[in-house]
Each structure stands twice: as structure tokens, then as C-alpha cells.
Amino acid sequence: MNNFEEYCTKFVQLVGNKEGAVSPAVTNSASFAYGTPEIAQGVFDGSVKKPLYSRMGNPTTAKLESIMAEMDGGVAAIATSSGMGATTLACMSLLASGDEIISIGGLFGGTYSLFSETLARFGIKTHFFDVDDFKEIAQTINENTKIIFLESVGNPNMKLPDIGRIAKIANDSGVIFMVDNTITPLSISPLKLGADISIYSTTKIISGNSSALGGCAVFRAVNDGDDKLKSPRYDFLAKFIKGAGKMALFANAKKRALRDFGMSANANASYQTMLGFETLPLRLSRITSSVEIVALALDEAGLNINHPCLKLHPHNERYLNDFKNGCGTLFTIDMGNKKKAFEFLNKTKLATLTANIGDSRTLALHMASTIYRDFDEETRKFLGISEGLIRVSIGLENPQDIINDFIQASK
Ligand SMILES: *Cc1c(COP(=O)(O)O)cnc(C)c1O
């Protein structure tokens, strides 16, 4: 049974209620009344399990969080207003001025500018590496390193990391390992491969229909006995380990980031995201199969396609061994220059031109003139953004229809 089949059962069962309203209830309330001062006190000290205030948690969002935690085998999850909200939550809950991040692969443009520009203003230094720079990664770790950050699939460079090997480097050196798994939910389970926190933009394939912005961070359980987090490097976690035990990473993020920065999810977006979960395995199964069919056909037709299912791709072996359920919805086409790329995008009748990915529809976008327009040449080169590069996110259409349309558009 592949991952998708397992989740087909799990998600429809988890989202629907067996009694009363089948569809999850949407609790559109910012605040919650406590009834008595005694209950209010209990809600604030945690002894009464009732909602406190929607910035700190909402019943609709809580249901989404329990599904996300179950999906990744985590102890708990925090849903956020966007994927960038989830990355910011996870990072800001662990970082202080003078700390360092090691960022590997990718990188999604928003995450790159968060690390290279915004966090730099707060005295946090990020070292960027390619996915296979194992030696350099290990050598760069020092006592200030608080986070090793990895994207499960390079977007848009389509490089695949050896997640297990990078997890081992992080765990051997006692550093928290975070994986942005936005592109490969279900296909890759970061916590099972040794990550401490998995991060998602649920805006993408999880919602799947461009209807709800959202994000989520899923946390692993802290061990009762030995745990790398019980070290001087993470001394600020000690009080959460004492108070919340295995939930310490989650409790720290809730107080130090969600409460203080307020990147909270809203109930309507959480509801729409749950509807996406019902069909997520079916859509992923269809799309990961279509991506291969379309990439192979376009490659055969002479287009310059970048996807690890192609034999000449440097990570083809890793794709076949470690990404048995595919690597998401993306591939890229390099048209050689901007003019040819624009001609292609003007001629395609099927692709929707937008900055999103993982939608029900096939999407396409010229990278250098849009998402990466603010980046200098050197950075674009590091991120693999060439002048003619188009990123494609395959949708639910019939794959032959996509092939026919793209071939006519490329002529
Ligand atoms: C889109 C995306 C994000 C950011 O998510 P938003 O919901 O747009 O804030 C982060 N990481 C990856 C890999 C993404 O594709």
C-alpha cells in the first residue's frame, strides 16, 4: 500500500464527524466567554481545556491542527495565517540575536528573503548551502547554530535532498532540524526521517484550489530521557521541557511566537483547508503520475525539462529510491531566454499564469521577471533561476491535453 492509499482512509474519516453536523463546524468568534471567574482562571493556567482567545487557538483550527499532527506523526501542530507565518513561527520561537541558521537547498523566494534580509536585521546569520554540500554543512555548525533548515524539493531548481543523511548531521551535532515539506506532503514524512519540525504552506496542494491562505508547523515529541534539546544550546527550552514535557517544542512556539507575533490562522481558512484534506491523497496520486507523463513527453519532444524522473537528472537515483511517491507537482522548462519564455506563456491556452503552485489547475510562471525579480544575478544563479526559466505546476487536467497544449505553445 503506498502512502496515498493509507491517507485516503485516514483523512475522510478524520475530517467528517460521526455525530451531528458531518462537515466540521466553523467557530467564527475572536473571543470566548468563560462563564465564571474560576473557569477563566483555569483556562489561563491550562487546567481547563477550553478556548482562551482566537489568537492562541480556535476550535475549528484545532481540528485542522490535529489532522496535520496525525499526518506527520507529530505530538502537536500549530496552524498559521500563511506558509511564511509557519516558517516565521518555527524560526522565531528558537532564535535570538547572534544565532545562526544553516539553510540547505531550494529556496522558496519568501524564505530566502526572510533569512537573508529580514532575520539579518535582527542579528541572525544564515549560511546557505546546496543539498549535497554535506562536508561544508557539518563544518559550519558551531555553538550558535540553532536551526538546520531544508526544503524537501528545491523550488524551482528541482534538486532532491538526502533528508536522512542531513537529519543525521543535525541530530549528531544536537541542532534542531526543520523541513519545509510544502511540496511533498504524504510523499515525504519529515519527522519519521529525523526532523524535529515540519513546516507547510497549506495554501498549495493541501488546500489545492486557491481558496485559502494558510500554513502549519508540526512538532515532534521531546523524549522523556535523553534528548538533544536538553542542552546548553537550547537552555531557553528548559522551562518548557519542565512544564510541558514531550510537548515542549509546541508549547514554546505557542507562547514565544504565536502569542507574541500573532500569525494565527482564521477559522474559515482552517475549514477550507480541511475540505482540501479529504481529496489530498487522490489529487496527489493523480498529479504525481501526470507530472512524470508530461515531463517525459515534453523531454522527448525536445524541450529543456528539469525533473528528477528524467534519467540524466543528477538526482534521478534519489528520486527512484527515496521519493517513491513522487516529488510533488512541479517541473521547470528552460526556454533559453525571456523572449521565448514569454512567447510560450502567451501561447499556452491551458496554463494559468500565477505565483501559486499545487493547484487543481495547471499553473505556469516566468521566474526571473516575477518572484525572483528583486534578486541580484549571483543569487539567481545560486537558486538556479535562468533567464528563460518557466516553473510549471501540473494540475488535474488530462495529461495528454497538457502535453498537446505545451507542445503547440513551444512552437
Ligand atoms: C508558497 C510556499 C511557502 C510560503 O507559503 P505562503 O502560504 O504563500 O505564505 C513556503 N515554502 C514553500 C516551499 C512554498 O511553496
Structure description:
The chain is of the alpha/beta class. The chain has two domains: 266 residues, Aspartate Aminotransferase, domain 2 (3-Layer(aba) Sandwich); 129 residues, Aspartate Aminotransferase, domain 1, CATH 3.90.1150.10. Helices cover 40% and strands 13% of the residues. The chain has 14 helices and twelve strands. Strand 4, helix 7 and strand 5 form a beta-alpha-beta unit. Helix 3 packs parallel to helix 10 and helix 8 packs across helix 9. The relative contact order is 0.13. The site of pyridoxal-5'-phosphate has 17 residues, from helix 4 and helix 5.
> What kind of oligomer do you see?
single chain
Judged by helices, strands and strand pairing, the structural class is alpha/beta
Q: Write down the domain tally.
A: 2
CATH superfamily of the largest domain: Type I PLP-dependent aspartate aminotransferase-like (Major domain)
